[in-house]
Amino acid sequence: MTSSPALVSAPRAESPLAASAPGSAAAPRTRRLPRLLGLAAAELSLLRRNRMQLGTAIVLPLALPFFFLPLAQNGASGAALAGVLGTGFVVVLLFVVYYNLLSAYVARRQDLVLKRLRTGEASDATVLAATATPALLLAAVMITLTTALSIPLLDLPLPENPLVLALGLGLGAVMLVPLALVTANITRTVESAQVTSLPAMAVLMIGAGGILPLDLLPEWAARLITFLPSAPITALVRLGWLGIDADGAAVAGADAWLLTAGQTGILLAWTLVGALIVREHFRWEPRG
Amino acid sequence: MTTLDQAPTTTGSTGSTGTTASAATTSTDATDIAADIVLQASGLSRRYGRGKDSYLAVDGLDLTLHRGELFGLLGTNGAGKTSTLEVLEGLARPTDGTVRVFGHDPYRERRAVRPRQGLMLQTGGFPADLTALEALRMWSRTLSTPRPVLDVLADVDLADRAGTRISSLSGGELRRLDLASAIAGDPELLFLDEPTTGLDPESRARAWELIASLKARGTTIVLTTHYLDEAESLADRLAIMHRGQIVREGTVADVVAGHAARIRATLPASAPALPELQGEAVRSPEGRLEVTTSSLPEDLHTLLTWARSAGVELSSLDARAASLESVFLEIAGSTHTLEG
Questions:
Q1: Distance from A32 to chain B by nearest Cα, in Å?
Q2: Interface contact A158, partner B, CB < 8 A
Q3: Is A52 in CB contact (< 8 Å) with chain B?
Q4: Is the minimum CB–CB distance between B128 and chain A shorter than 8 Å?
Q5: Where in chain B is the domain with CATH 3.40.50.300?
Q6: Residue B200, class by beta-carbon neighbours within 10 Å (0-12 exposed, 13-18 middle, 19+ buried)?
Q7: Is the domain defined by B2-256 classed in CATH 3.40.50.150?
Q8: Are the Cβ atoms of B144 and A10 closer than 8 angstroms?
């Protein structure tokens, strides 16, 4: 048996302390993106190998427009359909981003992958963001496909302001990442995610207007619901696609900007709160 | 095998390293020696829990590591090896005391330290559905100075298992993948926590060669192990931990020095009284003889001469000098005396 000659024949440069001083502080910063992409590539391989997760993530968004086909054939207006489609998008995000990531984070923790990565050079944020990257990209692709498919299939109007639409869905998807991480804290195994995900899923569906008929609720309850993390997603989808507010009134100019800013603020606030909780309390190792 | 051939050389260089080490700890003004210090820990303590239930795992530990040396950290289970290692590696904050690695705090200034150190954990930590190659590549992409992934796999003899899923690798193969990720970043300082546990003898010999070759190129290595022969043949210096403290430290010769040798034999009950020995002899009623002595050759000679002239047959004769193992067992044994 031969010991690796390459190793033996290359004596290390002397004077280690001198070498460490300049440039070493700048190095980690420039390496951040390659690190994120390297880890994300591994996550993508894992996602590809998880047939169940991948299947749901592809089939559900594509099936969504067909759920609304009977409504469209029954003469529902394009505006009404685009409104409920916003709720549908939230459901898609919950499955493709929230639930997928919850299982992925719990699985990585169970396999001690998070523990290992934390001993290396990548920052905590990079490690967690890397797992989220493929799911977010997949969600972006699938929702774009769903939208593109829905417009001709359901005879919908073209989005009035696609940027606002994209902003709502994009931020909404990002907001679900810390939510998945917080939920991972109370989830011991991948299997138990089926149960621990339910509260957040239920609350977010209510916020998206999918469960309770909001116009039948008392004023205060309806107001409260607009501050749930999923409510701004539907609001921004509605505004971006149809240019209307929750009451169906057309919004334009400064009012539209104000509405966008307000809804974005709610999403950012939830994202921030989630991120702070994760930073302080995230559980990186399985419970002993 | 290469490791065996190297053993005398290792012990030879050991003496000088040991002297430098003690010189550095006594005279701090010698800056040329200080510049050579890779890791320095002083008054290190680590306490788990609070109040009554708290437990002091590491208790006032001092340690200095010099560039290029291989330091073995030995101890019984629960002696505090891993707790110490975690602090030195910057994975945990000490309750008390300071650690400096390359002149930085490894916990707070991890960005300065991590690119230059490699860790081999006891835990694994690769996604089950990735292949060995993918897992190592994933890890390598987080490193500042990654070596080619296939080279690293070849170093640990896993090249032929590159396409195998983590979930299908054997325990020994996983252990070698752990070692691969520890060396993948070409570290200057390498922590190996029980690197050969679970390896078959051949892989173990191969791992020893790899460790020796890393050392030969100047890597500073901290090694914990359950195998005393591993420490004995690889380590320049070693420390034996017991109950959170370092109870012996130095070269193998230093550690063993002053410990008594032992002669054992079985005598017929009819044998006459023993001759005068330098050491202490104990004869059991069943005829077992045990001599504890610091003058092994003299006492052995006396005993053999006596046996021949008295016509006594010394069966199952076993004479051995103090070894790392006997010192270790003595220290480990003191636990039982104290607890039991």
A1: 8
A2: no
A3: no
A4: yes
A5: 2-256
A6: exposed
A7: no
A8: no
Fold annotation for B261-321: Alpha-Beta Plaits (3.30.70)
Report the complex ipTM. 0.83
Nearest to B166 by CA among B184, B154, B178: B178
Give the closest residue to B239 by CA, choosing from B336, B328, B165.
B328
What pLDDT score was predicted for residue A213?
Answer: 73
**B144 inside 8 A of chain A by CB:** yes
How close does chain B come to A16, measured CA to CA in Å? 8
CB B190 within 8 A of CB B118: yes
Nearest-angstrom CA–CA distance, A239 and A256: 8
CA neighbor of A8 nearest in space, from B104, B67, B216:
B216
For residue B60, give the DSSP letter. E
Q: Is B31 on the interface with A (CB under 8 A)?
A: no
Name the token pair of B193: 């926590």
Burial (0-12, 13-18, 19+ Cβ within 10 Å), B202: exposed
Cα A112 to Cα A118: distance, rounded to the nearest angstrom = 10
Neighbour order of strands in the sheet with B261-266: B280-283, B288-293, B261-266, B315-320
- Residue A43's nearest CA partner among A32, A54, A29 is A54
Q: How many CB atoms lie within 10 A of CB A199?
A: 11
Cβ–Cβ contact B127 with A under 8 A: yes
Chain B residues 34-63 within an 8 A CB cutoff of chain A: 35, 38
Residues A96 and A139: beta-carbon distance below 8 Å: yes
- Helix H, strand E, coil C: the string for B190-246 is EEEECCCCCCCHHHHHHHHHHHHHHHHCCCEEEEECCCHHHHHHHCCEEEEEECCEE
- Counting beta carbons within 10 angstroms of the beta carbon of residue A242, is it exposed (0 to 12), middle (13 to 18) or buried (19 or more)? buried
Residues in B touching A107 (Cβ below 8 Å): 127
Tell me the nearest-neighbour CA distance from A3 into chain B, angstroms. Answer: 6
**What are B76-108's pLDDT values in tens digits?**
888 889 899 999 999 999 999 999 999 999 999
| Collapsed DSSP state (helix, strand, coil) of residue B127 | coil
Pure H helices in chain A: 5-8, 16-20, 27-30, 32-49, 51-67, 69-73, 78-93, 100-110, 113-118, 124-153, 162-185, 193-196, 198-207, 219-225, 231-242, 253-281
Q: Write the burial class of residue B5 (CB in 10 Å: 0-12 exposed, 13-18 middle, 19+ buried).
A: exposed
Q: Tell me, yes or no, if A288 comes closer than 8 A to chain B by beta carbon.
A: no
Provide the token pair at A284: 């990186």
**Best mutation site among B9, B31, B129, B137 for testing chain A: the one with the most A CBs within 10 Å?**
B129
Q: Are B17 and B37 in contact (CB under 8 A)?
A: no
Question: Mean pLDDT of residues grouped by 10 in chain B (340 residues)?
Answer: 39 40 44 76 92 88 94 89 93 94 94 94 87 96 94 94 95 92 95 90 91 93 90 92 91 86 88 88 88 90 92 89 86 54
